[in-house]
């Protein structure tokens, strides 16, 4: 946060006397202001000869902090925002859409958990192709395992569209242009890219982003978790909150995948541990029967649907 | 030395301000007792209490908060129909950033429809009145949260003036959300008397600010908290119950209720722990007999420690306590 010196230009009340007074009590930045007792500071200001000006300076900084805060919303405003801005994006598979009451919701962080080769990447690719085809705006695909396949995207699009040849080509072109794929292999690159995305969306430059897919987030976070330090968990929680902020403030749908690890007594559990559990809005468990090729999706956590509900679907393989 | 005060002033000062009866009436009006909906119904609360709802995810902590909020924003009586609410505003600070307003409005609507046998129409008007009493803000890190607390006084003042009476409930969901981020905050040079930003510091400031707010605006604080997590994924302390393994146990929590509540390990600093006046623990029951396909949850009061626990299920109408 800003050092007090930088505020002097725009707010003349925060002059050098005020800054010296603050420095004498260990306050150098706006951040320090937040962790100090302001009433105590005002009382200490009384003892100075220009106490009025100092107290006005304190009020000034408080009002700067207030202007940077988000506004309080009431229930009606929240409801309006959700109904107008946060729609459900169809995944391309009717059964999943029906199960999730419309699809992957904007503003939510949705997590797909499942053992390896249960079809998580296929669901991601299908969703990416469908969202790029049906809705305006880009799809950002962060790939950590080199599993993104443009061929597969083309297959999905061809399955969906009608076989009028000319149109099909144009649709494919448009879809391919809308999907932006980044390969990332560590959490620091992920955080960097997320910050860049946040800044570019905030400044309204470039075009709108509809969906962000990270496949898989667990392979980026697992290497830093573990050990006795808190830094791994801090990075994970920071990434989680950044994703939620992107989702909510920019009306983005965020889809991440997670793998499974061995839990107690032979039963698998989702990776990333207890601290991650609280972060996604929606957690879905995927599994696939390799013999019949029927996949099953069940709910681990959802704000509206009951835990344990499940649905079956099939992801069609290419020709 | 200042001259001694005249006798009349001293006599004025010695006179009593109010009688004990007047004091009691005043205190009970300004700081009344509140009875919250189940599962928090076992104890009466007064504004100024801080209630902590602890549980591992997924359990119904946010739902408990929502039910209490709905109870608070509903009016006591509206156009002849008794709703039995408190008719006051609620402030919800969302630190988990996972609040779902659709579920909230769905539950409120169901509650209103439940009384429809008596009144037709007017429901939407009441719905808007109630929704306007629900105030919401979300914070994505501790600094935003501290900034919100420091600037909340004006908002509370405004609320007191516009609505009849101020805010009764302050909800924080959930209190340990930024625990890991704060723990890893590097203490930037503690030299030249500068307070370094750390978990201890953030929680101390948070408690101090809330105490200040409570002294001026009497409110009941309901804070949800995720149950403890350790540094490592240590599950060795949980008393295991072999033979209950199945695929469905991935979906349900299977913690055995030992006599010592072995799973609830406190991770918030002691300044928060001593600030909390009541604590209730919620967890999914490991009882395999599902009540009509809904999982059961158990609640247990830890502070003050009551010997029995309540059971409830979650259905479309919200929380339902079963006996």
TrEMBL record, chain A:
UniProt KW Zinc-finger keyword: no
Gene3D superfamilies, A to Z: P-loop containing nucleotide triphosphate hydrolases
One GO location term (cellular component): nucleus
Designated name of the protein: DNA repair protein RAD51-like protein 4
Protein family membership: Belongs to the RecA family. RAD51 subfamily.
RecA family profile domain location: 85-260
GO MF annotation terms: ATP binding; DNA binding
Organism: Forsythia ovata
PANTHER family: DNA REPAIR PROTEIN RAD51 HOMOLOG 4
Cited function: Involved in the homologous recombination repair (HRR) pathway of double-stranded DNA breaks arising during DNA replication or induced by DNA-damaging agents.
Automatic annotation (TrEMBL), chain B:
Protein name: DNA repair protein XRCC2-like protein
Source organism (scientific name): Forsythia ovata
Ranges of residues in domain RecA family profile: 26-234
